[in-house]
Specification:
Layout: H1 2-12, H2 17-22, H3 28-39, H4 45-62, H5 71-77, E1 80-81, E2 84-85, H6 91-96, E3 104-111, E4 114-118, H7 121-129, H8 131-134, H9 143-148, E5 156-163, E6 166-170, E7 172-173, E8 176-177, H10 178-184, H11 186-200
Antiparallel strand pairs: 1-2, 3-4, 5-6, 7-8
Length: 202
């Protein structure tokens, strides 16, 4: 339904920046690529720039929270064990294998004060190309706790979820799997977790 509303607004010129943003961006390629094929060929440069801006904004809204900062801030804010993130688990394998796999010290990499271990040199090389793509959200603390109370709570590396290309970790012990609770109300908890992390990571 949203796709058709957006298409109608764009074709008829009946839109504002805010009105389009309000409809959200779930499947950008379905909404905009047909539009590019039919409309951009008319050399309407203003429209082309407008669409490119919208797509850039969409990409931003779907991305995770920024975790770029000084080594001091990152070491202070992140969930680390002797300076090592994710309890030594390989962040790349969550995406490549959909599994939590222990990394090895000989394949370690430090990123702005935070140390990551990798299963092999290939994963290390992949991570180095784009660390922000693989680092866990909220500094590696429990996503549910960050959204529920804003507290930094430990995680079980094997309890995780990837949402929009971002890694979320969860506490899971003593018969309390917080991922299950998160899944029931992710739409509410995620914005709260984002806001709470912003208060911590500053």
């Amino acid at each position: 339904m949203y796709k058709h509303l957006l298409m109608n607004m764009l074709y008829n010129g009946n839109y504002t920046l805010n009105s389009i943003i309000c409809y959200g961006f779930v499947r950008i390629e379905e909404i905009y690529l047909p539009f590019f094929d039919k409309k951009i060929n008319n050399n309407n440069l203003y429209m082309k720039k407008f669409i490119l801006i919208i797509i850039a904004l969409a990409s931003f809204t779907l991305s995770g929270k920024s975790q770029t900062g000084s080594p001091t801030l990152r070491k202070k804010s992140f969930n680390l064990s002797d300076g090592i993130a994710i309890k030594g688990y390989d962040p790349v394998d969550y995406f490549k294998k959909n599994k939590a796999i222990k990394g090895k010290k000989e394949f370690s990499q430090t990123v702005d004060g935070v140390v990551y271990y990798f299963e092999n040199s290939e994963n290390k090389a992949t991570f180095i190309k784009s660390p922000a793509q693989y680092e866990p959200q909220y500094g590696g603390w429990c996503a549910y706790a960050m959204g529920s109370t804003g507290e930094k709570v430990e995680i079980d590396p094997a309890t995780f979820k990837i949402v929009n290309g971002k890694l979320y970790l969860f506490y899971n012990a003593f018969f309390n799997n917080t991922k299950k609770t998160w899944d029931k109300d992710e739409a509410t908890l995620k914005p709260k977790a984002d806001a709470n992390w912003d208060k911590i990571f500053k």
